[in-house]
Amino acid sequence: MRLFLIASLILAVGASTELEQWETFKQTYGKSYKSIAEEEKRFTIFKENVEHIAKHHEKYKNGESTFTMEINEFADMTDGEYNALFTFQPIGSFKDEYGLKNVANVRNLPTSVDWRKKGAVSELVRSTGGCGASWAFSATAAVEAQLYIKKGNLTLLSPQDLIDCANATFGNHGCYEGSAINAFNYIRRFGIVSEKQYGYEARQGACRQRGVGVRISGFTKIPSYDEQSLLIAAATIGPVSVAIDASSLKFYRSGIIDNYSGCRSEFRYLNFEAIIVAYDADSWTLKNCWGPYWGENGYFRLQRNTNTCGVALRAAYPVL
Ligand SMILES: *[C@@H]1O[C@H](CO)[C@@H](O)[C@H](O)[C@H]1NC(C)=O
Ligand SMILES: *[C@@H]1O[C@H](CO)[C@@H](O)[C@H](O)[C@H]1NC(C)=O
Ligand SMILES: *[C@@H]1O[C@H](CO)[C@@H](O)[C@H](O)[C@H]1NC(C)=O
Which residues form the Peptidase C1A papain C-terminal domain (predicted)? Predict the structure, then answer.
């Protein structure tokens, strides 16, 4: 009897904790559901995700993983639903004459570089606000950095300009899919204006202006699978836009995502873009566009030299 009482007390405490966590989650991310049935379904998924995160935490504590996880805005989604948010597929075969250059071979590279410390990366970590245009944020940050490196002036440029104007003609589809390389092609031809001139709306609309602002002369596409060239570019040129498989970012909180984290390293799984802003002996540091509260203050790290999440498959930087 006594045992039974204690057991049910523990159960009750456990249950209330989960409910409390659920309420906190809903409040934090402004979640509301159409029906009680829908909320029950979401709560069930949430509990499964909480358990998954707890199991991952055990692995981390046992030294079997190099990164940590936390509950975030994706905690009421299944993996399938999360992956469906990202529909980016590799587009084109890089036949563009402006994209085919080799990175010069450089020896004696620094063991670590951080373009944030050099002032080439805006302190603002942007948020896509539910629009899946990571490609536009990656491209914008890359051009901002080159402008800073060449001209010493860090000006926020407009991802919305790209979302609206670097459209299907350039192989991009607004909030659904696109690539930084396609965006560079657009910026080469038409330019990109500042954030001030063309504010963010988190949806695709009609192109408001075209053919002004900053132009680039082209871009350099780093040969796929060539992580040494990627390193040379990240050390000597500046931040590099990359495509990855985003599946390991779902509950990422901190640390280094490795080649065994579940993300895949093949072309057909690339579904997201970010930008390499730093590296050290073990990892790449990438800036994301999910706001400053996600991951390591908006950033995440990937293991180096294992093509983790496909980071070395589709990397490029703009040339002013
Ligand atoms: C930096 O760029 C902005 C926008 O293009 C411009 O208004 C400003 O004058 C520039 N500042 C410097 C120091 O060049
Ligand atoms: C892309 O935008 C341009 C300029 O607004 C427009 O003329 C063109 O029709 C658009 N192309 C597509 C495929 O939507
Ligand atoms: C990455 O992990 C996969 C298995 O998930 C393995 O097949 C592959 O060889 C690894 N790649 C490297 C470069 O370690």
Answer: 109-319
Radius of gyration of the chain (CA): 21
Tokens linked to 190: 């038409």
Residue nearest to atom 1 of ligand 1 (CA): 153
- Residue 237 domain flag: yes
Give me the number of domains the chain comprises: 2
Q: How far is the CA of 138 from the centre of ligand 1 (A)?
A: 22
Are 256 and 149 in the same domain? yes
Pocket test for ligand 2, best of 170, 207, 210 (most atoms within 8 A of CB): 207
CB 285 within 8 A of CB 291: no
Which domain, by its residues, includes 37?
Answer: 2-65
Mean pLDDT of successive 10-residue stretches along the chain, which has 320 residues = 40 66 94 96 97 96 97 95 77 48 75 98 95 95 98 96 94 91 94 96 92 89 91 95 96 96 92 97 97 97 98 94
Residues 189 and 235 in one domain: yes
Q: What separation in Å is there between the alpha carbon of 167 and the centre of ligand 2?
A: 6
The answer to whether residue 71 sits within a structural domain is: no
